[in-house]
Write a structure and sequence with these properties.
By secondary structure, this protein is α/β, with parallel strands linked by helices. The chain has four domains: about 170 residues, no CATH class; about 325 residues, Thiamin diphosphate (ThDP)-binding fold, Pyr/PP domains (Rossmann fold), CATH 3.40.50; about 240 residues, Rossmann fold (3-Layer(aba) Sandwich); about 120 residues, Rossmann fold (3-Layer(aba) Sandwich), CATH 3.40.50. Helix content is about 40%, strand content about 15%. It has a nine-stranded mixed beta sheet with strand order 5-11-12-10-9-6-8-7-13. A seven-stranded mixed beta sheet has the order 17-14-18-19-21-20-25, with helices on both faces. It has a five-stranded mixed beta sheet with strand order 22-24-23-26-27, sandwiched between helices.
């Protein structure tokens, strides 16, 4: 409706495309103050939002969009003369408003951001009055400043020009005009322009900033003299990070935050651990000296370590957690966000106010690593939102040895990636710590107000090479000539405060000497440090338990039926898809005992039993609500209105919460998020499900550096469950194998469980075991595809009620063990192919044994199952995967240990292959038939 009215008005007026910019600026001024435009224009704009006397329910931003659209109807040339009916003063006024807008859009390009003065910014003509047909003769003329939030309606142009430069071209370069939300832009303009980006700070605040700089510089110099040549990835050049973080935590605590979770790579990490989180310096010095607690696992380098403490703020103590981080620089970001989501869920905080995530990036890494984009993309989605993240970039202007922008990225700024989520970006000169504090407070307030990400680009430099043993002048000779002559931030700021009369020279010297003495003493150097209280999650119930810990997983048949009826119930008026309705009718029959349970029914019963005991469940994957293979349908969709209903959320009045999300199309960031969630919430069954098991390849860094080794490196427990569809169904190389061999290769120190369940009862008891047993370690599941609807892959309610997952399943046919001449061991779906063919062959001399848990290998259970076959000399391991993949190479030492001594173990399966599977169904069937026949054929 609005569009048609606007077009009719436009067509009948003199306001063609050439004058579009002029009209838009006038309209902007009118929105801020109707009196700022002439009466004639005011009358026109007053009429815009009405049709036949009825006000339109349209946002002003939509009206402006109509101006832009109409402008495309004619040539878009800059206005050179006032349109008919406009005065010269009106035109000048519009030019002034254009100048203000130019500074808002592009002022950052002329800001004083680089401490070394090496940045060569191109001339931005938009920031020159002459570009807007204004000159010095206009400087004394008083103009209306429109929405420029300086606190006065009018200013002489000369004063306005100076004010714009102070606000947008000083030590802060603000990028926010890419944000489409007018309220957010107005809020930022008010905060920036009202103080011209230069707020007044108290003496105590300034002295506090200096103390932070003294600590940052003192720590690095101390380590450099005490451990010369040792890698520490120093913060020198980015010293402002220390007062910045301390102020950030204090400001967050004053605004209601109870926890702050920090993720950062190695640059400056040791400094932050000691000077912000309060890690005891003596402990760090012992780590430099190479001392090691023998009770720990493998350990990790000191600049990967995490830490936790409490920090006193005006709003009360805030719990701090520094996430452990491997050398894959940006992978910690989704881990932090996942941990924050778990903490928010535990606190039942829906808006993110109670827990603040802070991620600290390098300039090369934030632009160069794709997990950053994945994490930004998750930031506003239902399953991953945390109320916004404060992202800080330690911008050294060099990545390892790459400093040329054309080699490092394809954008002007390393932070341009943040524009994809319309995050405001504050570039700030790290040698101006007061400006750093200003943007830090602004960032926290923006995040808390709008629940969105915000980025601070701390433009600094790196005083040494990538590490302290490097010689950076080899590759950056000009930069390091500057660096060697450049004073440290502590000295620059101390000189500033002495010039202001804030502090005396002897006081500065005392701050430096006192900090050095505190390091010598070895005690905590953070005044705000407090002993941890109740903030962190309690892992104590899960420590000291191993695989053989007894647990009671049994449920009565009556309880199972009660839960089954609940998960089959949905509102009568809920219109289901016909196929889904049939599936739920079948499930009701299964619960009633009229049919055996299939995989989906048993899986949902497991979830129902877990939430019924009060535990939380979180399931996430690219198709987890429905299930990629159309088997789960835990989330029902009304075919009439699109509403959803989850029966699992209606199991009982006192049940635990359950969330099932179809995730963004990401593996790496999403799995890392779920890992982070799991490390912060041991009372939750946290599940990441691959659409196809092969797709976990995209998250290999998470599997290698966190899941498989996190406990051994860092003592970090985690109960994350991975469901990885696996099975050879003739669907080609990328839809067959979940790469079982890769997981098995990483097995050691009882670091995780690898299971290949083959029946609904097994998956039910496996999932329950993961929560009922008082132990938390990752569970890797090679989950099925065809078995989801296989006629023989069914179970009874009685089998579920047994309550125990069977690591090994023996022969199921009534067979005389004495007649057996060959025993075939296998896992997963191939069992059913073997069983079907053996029955067709009417063989009674080959036994088939299923190993359902490949790691930790169940030596005791398999010994019990194999007792009747000690006379057998012919043993076979059968698998669907090629010989160089699957379980054969990684587990055959376990197979040899299981069979009687002196007997023969052979392989039946596909030949070694560079590809996981063939792409032709006919060839697949041929291979499958051959491997089954090979496994069952007794050689004479």
């Amino acid at each position: 409706m609005l569009e048609s009215v606007m077009k009719a008005w436009w067509d009948s007026s003199h306001m063609a495309g050439g004058n579009a910019a002029y009209i838009e600026e006038l309209y902007e001024a009118y929105l801020d103050d109707p009196k700022s435009v002439s009466e004639q224009w005011r009358e026109i704009f007053d009429q815009l939002p009405k049709v036949n006397g009825v006000e339109l329910e349209s946002k002003h931003s939509e009206i402006r969009e109509q101006f832009r659209a109409m402008a495309q109807m004619g040539p878009m040339s800059r206005v050179s003369a006032a349109p008919a009916g406009s005065s010269a003063s009106d035109l000048k006024q519009v030019k002034v408003l254009q100048l203000i807008n130019a500074y808002r859009f592009r002022g950052h390009q002329h800001a004083n951001l680089d401490p070394l003065g090496l940045w060569k910014q191109e001339r931005v003509r938009d920031l020159e009055p002459s570009h807007h047909e204004l000159n010095e003769s206009d400087f004394d003329t008083i103009f209306n400043v429109g929405s420029y939030a300086i606190g006065q309606e009018t200013m002489p142009l000369g004063e306005l020009f100076k004010s714009l430069n102070r606000t947008y071209c000083g030590s802060v370069g603000a990028e926010y005009m890419h944000i489409t939300n007018t309220e957010q832009k107005r809020w930022l303009q008010q905060r920036f322009e009202s103080v011209q980006a230069q707020p007044t700070l108290s003496r105590d605040t300034k002295v506090g900033i200096l103390k932070g700089l003294v600590a940052a510089d003192g720590m690095e110099k101390y380590l450099g003299s005490k451990f010369p040549g040792a890698k520490r990835f120093s913060l020198e050049g980015g010293d402002a990070l220390i007062p910045m973080l301390k102020n950030l935590i204090s400001h967050a605590g004053s605004n209601g935050a109870k926890e702050v979770v920090v993720g950062m790579a190695h640059r400056g990490r040791l400094n932050v651990l000691v000077n912000v989180l309060g890690k005891n310096p003596s402990v760090l010095f012992d780590e430099f000296a190479g001392k090691h607690d023998e009770s720990l696992g493998s350990g990790d380098v000191k600049y990967h370590a995490g830490y936790s403490s409490d920090f006193a703020t005006p709003g009360g103590n805030v719990h701090l957690a520094m996430a452990f981080n491997p050398s894959h620089l940006e992978i910690v970001n989704p881990v932090v966000i996942g941990s924050v989501r778990a903490r928010l869920d535990r606190r039942d905080c829906k808006d993110g106010s109670a827990v603040l995530p802070v991620t600290i990036h390098g300039d090369a890494a934030i632009a160069g690593q794709g997990v950053v984009q994945e994490t930004f993309n998750m930031s506003q989605t239902r399953g991953f939102a945390v109320g916004g993240t404060v992202r800080i970039v330690i911008n050294n202007q060099v990545g390892f040895t790459t400093s040329k922008i054309e080699d490092a990225r394809s954008t002007q700024y390393c932070t341009d990636i943040a524009k994809m989520v319309q995050a405001p970006i504050f570039h700030v000169n790290a040698d101006d710590p007061e400006a750093v504090i200003f943007v830090t407070n602004l960032a926290i307030d923006y995040r808390n107000t709008f629940k969105r990400d915000v980025v601070i680009d701390l433009v600094c430099y790196r005083r040494h090479g990538h590490n302290e043993a490097d010689e950076p002048s080899v590759t950056q000779p000009l930069m390091y000539k500057k660096v060697k002559k450049h004073p440290v931030a502590r000295q620059l700021y101390a000189d500033q405060l002495m010039a202001e009369g804030i502090i005396e020279k002897h006081e500065v010297e005392k701050l430096v000497s006192d900090y050095r003495a505190a390091l010598d003493h070895g005690a905590c150097v953070v005044d705000e440090w407090r002993p941890m209280t109740e903030h962190s999650v309690d892992w104590s119930p899960f420590i000291g338990h191993d695989w053989d810990t007894e647990y009671d997983g049994a449920l009565s048949l009556d309880k199972l039926k009660e839960l089954g009826e609940r998960i089959c119930h949905f509102p009568e008026e809920f219109a289901l898809n016909s196929r889904v309705k049939k599936l739920y009718q079948d499930r009701a029959a299964m619960i009633a005992g009229d049919k055996k349970l299939d995989w989906g029914c048993a899986e949902l019963l497991a979830y129902a039993s877990i939430v019924d005991r009060g535990s939380r469940i979180r399931i996430c994957g690219q198709d987890s609500g429905r299930g990629t293979f159309f088997h789960r349908h835990a989330v029902l969709h009304n075919q009439e209105d699109g509403q959803t209903y989850m029966p699992l959320q209606h199991v009982s009045d006192e049940q635990g919460p359950i969330e099932i999300y179809d995730s963004v199309l990401s593996e790496e960031a999403v799995m890392a998020f779920e890992y982070g969630y799991s490390t912060a919430e041991p009372g939750c069954l946290t599940v990441w499900e691959a659409q196809f098991g092969d797709f976990s390849n995209g998250a290999q860094v998470v599997i290698d550096q966190f899941l498989s080794s996190g406990e051994h490196k860092w003592g970090r427990l985690c109960g994350l469950t991975l469901l990885l569809p696996h099975g050879y169904e003739g669907q080609g190389p990328e839809h067959s194998s979940a790469r079982l061999e890769r997981f098995l290769q990483l097995c050691a120190d009882h670091n995780w469980q690898i299971c290949v369940p083959s029946t609904p009862a097994q998956v039910y008891n496996m999932l329950r075991r993961q929560m009922v047993r008082p132990m938390r370690r990752p569970l890797i599941v090679m989950s099925p595809k065809s078995l989801l609807r296989h006629a023989q892959a069914t179970s009874s309610l009685e089998e579920l009620a047994e309550g125990q997952f069977k690591n090994v399943i023996g022969e199921i046919d009534d067979m005389d063990a004495k007649k057996v001449k060959r025993v075939v061991m296998c896992s997963g779906k191939v069992f059913y192919d073997l069983l079907d063919q053996r029955r067709k062959n009417e063989q009674d001399d080959v036994a088939i044994i299923r190993i359902e848990q490949l790691y930790p290998f169940p030596h005791d259970e398999i010994a019990e199952v194999l007792k009747p076959y000690q006379h057998v000399k012919d043993w076979v391991w059968c698998q669907e995967e090629p010989q160089n993949q699957g379980a054969w190479y990684c587990s055959q030492h376990h197979f040899y240990a299981a069979i009687p001594q002196g007997t023969k173990l052979t392989y039946a399966g596909r030949s070694a292959s560079a590809s996981p599977a063939v792409g032709y169904v006919s060839l697949h069937n041929q291979q499958q038939k051959a491997l089954v026949e090979d496994a069952l054929s007794i050689k004479k």
